[in-house]
């Protein structure tokens, strides 16, 4: 695993052999943090592509168990930036620890995103489906 960013409010690491970006988000965010996160996500996508992973085949595992409930304005900004066809991973699994944060994630969720309460189940869903997809596409 190669760590791309390790900031106070987020960590991004890549495992190109699995087509996987591991993301951990923490705390309460503001626009400055969203901007920094956006820059690092773009960098991570470019690094995954340069490592041989097609952009449309990237999987993301987002561990949001350390994140706080966010403002509605921030959620709207996040949705505008990341819920665009050219920015979406093949599939995304988000792990949450609270029902309230789960509801917020559902409001900004990508069409190919599932929400989990345990990390192992999320990772299994991502990687099992990835293996099945590779078999179908071969």
Series of H and E elements: EEEHEHEHEH
Name the structural class.
alpha/beta
What is the alpha-carbon Rg in Å? 14 Å
Looking at the structure, the CATH topology is Transcription Regulator spoIIAA
* CATH C-level name: Alpha Beta
Strand content: 25-35%
Low-confidence stretches: 133-138
In total, how many domains does the architecture comprise?
Answer: 1
Helix content: 40-55%
CATH architecture tag = 2-Layer Sandwich
Apparent shape: globular
Distance between the termini: 26 Å
CATH-assigned homologous superfamily = STAS domain
Largest sheet: 6 strands, mixed
The largest beta-sheet arranges its strands as 1-2-3-4-5-6
Number of separate strands: 6
- The overall average pLDDT, rounded, is 87
Number of helices: 4
